[in-house]
Amino acid sequence: MGKNRSKRRDTNLFDSDDDDSMSSASTGISEQTLAQESERVTSKDHELDMFLDALYEKRGATREKALLGLVDAFENHVLLEFVENKSITLLHQFLNSIKRGSSKEVSLASRAIGLLAITIGCGSIAHEIMEECIPNFYQALTSGSDSLKKSAILDCLAVICFVGGEEVEEKEKAMKIIWELIHPKSGSNVTLSKPIPIVLASAISAWSFILSTLNPRNINSQTWRESISYLSTLLDKDDRSVRIASGEAIALIFELGRLDKFSQEDTGFYENEKHEGAKPPSGGFTYVETLKGKILSQARTLSMEAGGKGSAKVDLNNQRNTFQDIVAFIESGSCPEHSVKVLNNCNHLVVSTWIQMTQLNFLKRFLGRGFLKHIQDNELLHDVFDFTPRRKDNLSIKEKRLFLSPNSVVNKERTQYLNKRRSWTKDWKQGHFKVGAEDV
Predict the structure, then answer these.
(1) Which part of the chain is the Interferon-related developmental regulator C-terminal domain (predicted)?
(2) Which of 50, 77, 170, 327 is the most buried (most CB within 10 A)?
């Protein structure tokens, strides 16, 4: 028994030593990994702080390089910890660059502000960013003619209102600034000239992006009475990006369901080659129906446009696809469903309304290569699209049934929504929504 007890003691001692050894090795690896990770994070934070310090330099090239570094970091990471206590300092330095910088510096600073707002997310800080930026942006948009600078500021203005706008009046104020750039004759600033196509397309997209956040009941009908009539004239412009942006804006207005709020009997609507000298039909509802018919005809033509000399195939296909979706929507009331691949073996982001399409297209374009990173890790985008990436191989059988099955709750809710939309469209076509009728 003594020998057996001795053997057990030796065995326990060996096991203990082995466990201690493995534990020690594991701890060593863990500490080493943590140290490396800590060093990497510290190094990254130090680099970001150096970029921030460089924004105080007098030399424009130095500030541009720092802005480029910060923009790259904002695109590739969701820098919540970095901006937590530095957001207002960053904002003020970005605004200084907009006030005194070159065209390139202004464009980078505008982009940096937009990325800062997307990183911060909704709340008081985002609202403060919007309030401080709008006066500076208005000044920049109504003076000078630099298209690169104006396009960047328009994108940023749309983003900060999308994230930080809390009241309808605030958003409509920004939309009015943008609309006066789209249609200079509509505003009081007589010094504004017609924007070149790249600025016009950016302005229409920015205006639509903010519009996508408004409740149709709260839209000021007097302010936007002429918008869809004017947008329909832009479908005949030579520039394809302007046509696409205008088409998407029109589809969004159709989906909001208050076409009468965005149109008026305007003789300017008929002053083109096809309708020269024609008079608008009398009667509000008749006018809206006529306008709708004209837009549908334009959309059909653009959805089948043949490629001409010098026509980029990608741009042409983009136009055809966009207007095919618009035609289908106007005719059926259903926005075609689109899905976006986020990660391999991961559930797709699915959008099935023009509101979602408008927001998705704008954010994809604005974030560029940073879109996939932000749609994976940024809670703001998760809230906007009601979407959280999930790896399919990690889902339980119950979760797969819930999210992926054709009979899943998610798919049933989407089907119910589309059915309601079709029913609404049928009623609308039958005249249940009369011009000037009150919202129900």
Answers:
(1) 378-423
(2) 327
**Among residues 294, 314, 335, which one ends one of the domains?**
335
Which phi and psi (to 5°) does residue 390 adopt?
-135, 130
> Are 405 and 273 within one domain?
no
| CA-atom Rg of the chain in angstroms | 28
Does residue 111 share a domain with residue 97? Answer: yes
Please check whether residue 44 lies inside any domain of the structure.
yes
Residues 350 and 299 reside in one and the same domain: no
- CA-wise closest residue to 415 among 337, 360, 331: 337
Assess whether 189 and 325 both reside in one domain: no
The answer to whether residue 280 is domain-embedded is yes
Q: Do 141 and 84 share a structural domain?
A: yes
Give the separation between CA 106 and CA 127, rounded to whole angstroms: 21
Q: Are 189 and 290 within one domain?
A: no
Domain count for the chain, please give it. 3
| Assessment of whether the complete model's pTM goes beyond 0.85 | no
Q: Scanning the structure block, which residue is given the tokens 């054709």? A: 406
28 within a domain of the structure (yes/no): no
DSSP H or E segment with residue 220: none
Per-residue pLDDT of the chain in tens (440 residues, 90 and over written 9): 444 444 443 434 334 444 444 444 444 445 555 454 445 556 788 899 999 999 999 999 999 999 999 999 999 999 999 998 899 999 999 999 999 999 999 999 999 999 999 999 999 999 999 999 999 999 999 888 789 999 999 999 999 999 999 899 999 999 999 999 999 877 666 567 788 999 999 999 999 999 999 988 888 777 787 888 899 999 999 999 999 999 999 999 988 876 766 776 544 444 444 444 444 444 466 777 888 899 999 999 999 987 654 457 788 899 999 999 999 998 888 888 888 888 877 888 999 899 999 999 999 999 999 999 999 999 999 999 999 888 766 556 665 555 555 555 555 555 554 455 445 444 433 433 333 333 33
Pairwise CA distance, residues 131 & 362, whole Å: 22
- Look at residue 20 and tell me if it is in a domain: no
Same domain membership, residue 74 and residue 114:
yes
Domain that holds residue 322: 215-335
Residues in contact with 284: Cβ distance below 8 Å, sequence separation at least 6, in sequence order: 260, 265, 435, 436
Q: Which helix (H) or strand (E) holds 339?
A: strand 338-340
Shared domain check, 191 and 55: yes
- What tokens appear for 200 in the block? 């016009």
By CB atoms closer than 10 A (0-12, 13-18, 19+), residue 250 is: buried
| Residue that finishes a domain, picked among 148, 181, 207 | 207
